[in-house]
Amino acid sequence: MRQHDAIDDCALSVREVRAGDTRLIAYVVWKNSPISLSELREHLRQQLPPYMVPQHLEALGELPRTLNNKLDRKVLQSWNLTQMSAGESRQGPETSTEKWLALCWGEVCGNHDINKYDNFFDIGGHSLLSIQVIHKVQAHFNVELKPRDLLLESLHQLAELIDQTTKTAATESSAAKGLSDETNKTELHSPATQTIHPVFFGDSKLPLYGVIHEPGAGAYRSKAILFSSPIGHEYFRNYRMTQLLATSLAKQGFYCMRFDYHGVGDSTGEFSTQSIEEWQQDLIKAYEELKARAGVEQVVCVASRLGASIATLANTKCQFNELVLWDPILNGSDYLGKLDTLQKQVLTQNWHFSVRRKSSDLKQGEYLGYQYCTKLQKQIDSLRLADQLNSLNDTPCTVISTTEDESLSATGGQHINYQHIDDEGNWYFYKDIDRSISTHNINQFILKSLSQ
């Protein structure tokens, strides 16, 4: 920061601006010619990686000093954050859209002193909070902003963008009224589009991250779809398949929700502290969130790998209308053994590491970059698919397997439907661990069976 010609002095501090919201604050003292905070932020973005750019910039006349001429951090922490910069004019929001955005930003960031020419990140916003704003704008205006919009545009510019988009949509809606009743009727039952938006839900201090696939124009189906994804390295291998399937189902009129368990993907929490019980609670929260958003009582859970085990265990609380399990873990002990074999193969192959690693490089319970705590290992070790299926009572369940296993057909009752589908992809081939699982046949089977 001191490299910038306009800065005379500066200081940094970490500060909790409200419960659960800790930010990096930069205090700056200008030289004779101050610049805008937006210009300074752009300078920092060019010099630093994103995680090192302060979330909040504060301009001061001078930094507080002790009698020994050292920075007085206690005084610094006690001052209110004003976002007032010397040389910057202040003009409050004027239009109804600007006022709504200002209230939205204030609610999300905890800063209600907002100038119409402020940038969201200049008033204390950051990437996680920007997702909340995008969702609120989507819900209120039916306008889908992009994270880049909040990064580059001022409140005034965003308000103009929203107004322009809603005006265009209203014009197109009026033109569409000229369509015949028969055409409109067809559209009601064949929504060809969808709206995708991120959501945070659950505990406000440790929120879960999810993605909603909402059907476009037309009536929703009476059932919603909840996806229970794998954990660990298999989460990333499964990601593209889940995304494509959710997109296809939303176009068929299903309200869909994908989400990440705590410690996985974009949800908060550390993987090394998680357990099966905690992930069951995550699934229950996602189930309740989906029902509330979709306004339905019937939810189908599409689950894969360890996510399938979690779904069957949580079924007594969630009461799914139907379960679709893709390549579920048949035997937890065998699964851990195969992870251990994969780990050893990866460590000893030159194609993966330029310098061959040793088993001693790993922590106890580490599999393919993820630390499985002792409790989680014991829980996985005890998993048996046969026991889980027998506990489903009469809940309809389809088990899709890419490997033939005669033991599957002898498990469960008449409510269990077994499907063996040959498809590309191998969960346990060490050279494929970084590759997305290709599952065209399975996707088509699930899409067809749920759409009937």
Give a brief outline of the structure:
This protein has 15 helices and 13 strands. It is α/β, with parallel strands linked by helices.
Task: Give structural notes.
This protein is of the alpha/beta class and 452 residues long. It has 2 domains: 7-155, GMP Synthetase, Chain A, domain 3 (2-Layer Sandwich), CATH 3.30.300.30; 193-451, Rossmann fold (3-Layer(aba) Sandwich), CATH 3.40.50.1820. The chain is built from 15 helices and 13 strands. Strands 4-5-7-6-8-9-12-13 form an 8-stranded mixed beta sheet, with helices on both faces. A 3-stranded mixed beta sheet has the order 1-2-3, with no helix packed on it. A two-stranded antiparallel ribbon has the order 10-11. Helix 11 packs across helix 12 (374-381). It is globular and about 80 Å long. The N and C termini lie far apart (61 Å). Residues 83-89 and 179-192 have low confidence and may be disordered.
